[in-house]
Design brief:
Growth Hormone, Chain: A; two-stranded antiparallel sheet; 17 helices
Length: 487
Amino acid sequence: MTSAASWRTSPSCCTAKASNGSCRADPCGPGRQREPNTGRDTAWRGRNSHTYEGSSQNVPHRSGPNAPGSLWRDRDFRHYAVAQGISVTGSGVTTIALSVLAVVELHASTFNVALIAFASKLPPLLLSLHAGVLADRRRKRPLIITCDLLCAAVLLTLPTAQFLARITLIHLYAVALTVAALQVIGSNASISFLPSLLGPGRIKDGNAKMGAGNSLADLIGTNSGGALVVALGAARAITVDASSYLASALLLWRIRHHEDPPPPRKAGTSQWAEIREGLTYTLRTPVVRSIVLSNTATSFVLAASSALWSLYLLRELHWSPTALGIVMGAGGAGGILGALVWQPLERRWGPGPVMLGALSLNPLAQIPLVLVGPGLGGQIAIGIGMVIQTGAAVCHGGLQRAVRQELAPDELQGRAQATGAWLAFSLRPFAALAAGGLGTWLGLHLTLTLISAALVIPFLVLWNSPVRDLGTAAPASLTATEEPANP
């Protein structure tokens, strides 16, 4: 089961032993360093040398914008966070409204619903790498604002079409495709803008606060989404999301932070050469590569699930739009909890164990979906599963994103994030199509059961990687890329 996803939201010690105590080769490669006088391994150091000693955090970060004090006292961060939160709220409404438009009002078939999911998941495959180059070539804030304004305009075509004539499935496909394409550009620019806005020492804190705020916004959006759809109608309810994009653009426009212009490109450098540089960094940095591969498996399975989830609940379990909105909104409560706990857990155990623990909860949280029947009891059980899964997703997502942001060099931020997104999301449209085909052939219940079981795969990918051994300290070699073998 998946909650509403939005971009306006859509990797500490390498030990020399395995968890069973047996000796194993250092997964991080050569170059272990020892602290003078203590003999301990030096803390794992990203590009900005954030330090974690033992089980407590000591972060002598370099001076960044408004570095001292709480982030909530930083005016620019408040504008950024509130802009994200408002638009996530709007996206929660649209998630419900589009499902109701397709399933209830247009009587879409299982495969038609999967095609809408396919349309929304195709742009990351086609555009992510180019979006990364664009973000590294341009100032990022204007890109985000432009995407917000264009998304608002596209969404407003749905209520306009209903007023003038009628909405068709082709129109839904077009809106899903166009908004997703704009979100690819805006999402990448937004994620890579945050390190510039905060300074490197506050990235984890910023991601944790963003996770909590976005989860609260998702809780509000999805819970109000069902009620708004009932009160206004599905198409008119989408105007709420369009308005949220406009509000987000206004708040981002008011940010005062001066974003340095990107460094000049080397003469004769092509876009494909810059894309290749981002791919090389991602695939030759062991920790980043492992996290991205695990993210890819997670994204594929959840894309298959999300293609059928609303259809299954609305059609086979006979849920009302209001019940769907309330249960989906329950995930927001789990997201808030996950955002609040991942920093303390990371300081105590390190990124690796926390990410593995979060991924291990995913298949367990799916059990209610495939066991319960119609009625209030089933809705409560699925809601509890949603709380667990969303909490784990926010915990894992915020931590892995912060680690990748810290490790990436400034000049590669856009491409590093875009490459990770491309690898993680490029298979999602095919997952949606496969889910539609299997749902038509095997039935929705059996297909969702198989998809739920497949959620163990991302955990196994991360378990069999260097990330498994990331505790509270790790060598500087983690940040190095692997050199290609000499012929």
